Amino acid sequence: MTPAEINIAATEHLARLVAFDTTSRDSNLALIEYVEALLGGLGVVSRRVANAEGTKANLYATLGPSAPGGIVLSGHTDVVPVDGQPWSSDPFTLTRRGDRLHGRGTCDMKGFLALALATAPDFARGSNARPVHFAFSYDEEVGCLGAPSMIRELVTELPPPAAVVVGEPTNMEVVSGHKGIATWRVTVTGHEAHSSLTHLGVSANMVAVGLMNQLAAIAETLEHDADPASLYCPGHATLTIGQIHGGTAVNILARECSFVFDLRAPPGQEPDAIIAPFITECARQDAILRARFEGAGVEVVRRSATPSFAPEPGGAAELLTRRLAGDNGPARVVSYAAEAGQFQQAGFSVVICGPGSIEQAHQPDEYLEIAQLERGAAFMARLYEAVRR
After folding, report:
1. Of 36, 108, 140, 365, which residue is the catalytic one?
2. 284 Cβ partners below 8 Å, 6+ apart?
3. Is 336 or 116 the better-scoring residue by pLDDT?
4. Is 140 assigned a catalytic role?
């Protein structure tokens, strides 16, 4: 197929993919069934790797020969919620306005999936010298939770691929590093009493405020110690508290307060080491509360941990992807987390490269520029030529 033909087919696939509401809180199985049917029509056998409940699934498939040296095209199928966002059109209907295609997930990252599916008939040809592997995941948007189980199977079931391309939106420029992200939930349990009788209870909110202050101090230290030569923006690990819930009334000492925070660290910085002083303080406060009231205490639970992705200068994935993308630009890294670190941790050579800009991701009226889809189509056409040889 020519780039123009791939672009037309990709637009059709994108309309179908956007129509599936795959918000992370919901199932992605309808989309997975669509991909399975499409690949099955090409004679391609795909494999699901489901979650424990069977309500969501990763999907991977090999298009072309079962041979080493293939290319993995990886992307997530889930999208973030549209709740409360002022959309100008139905977020789950692909809508063209001018030179933009609007819809939830158009840029993050169903545009890349659509390009892969559009080129699938060529990738599936038996005459190719090397395979292309599709690896579509679930629950990336809520902590990169789905991909690890699929990656484990890719390691054991596939002939060793040469490269993995994770198609997050990068304006079709090659990105060779990202920060990791780890998230924790802290729950403080106090003892209720009238707010005028503070000696008879303990406010979970007041204890939580002290703990959050310590996190704020750690965040300030991280900013102060930023590496001025870092390629990341911002050039340091970041720590933010994203959610806080606590208390029932203004005149009651709060029985419970919980908060969730995330830590995004570049390669070379270990999240556990960064927050070690905070964990120590939580343990100290836990002992104090338990000694005062039965059932009181502090609980810290890790919610997710996505590893960082370190640049691999001269690696197989970067060399190939730069050639296919026509990218001779400088080294690039991003501050968001993705599944690239998980692939790298499993031993794969990886890059991030996909259509669209991260600036449009998660926004109301999210869009993918048609020019970006066209650049992606040219990339896929060149990839097809590369695996034929």
Report:
1. 140
2. none
3. 116
4. yes
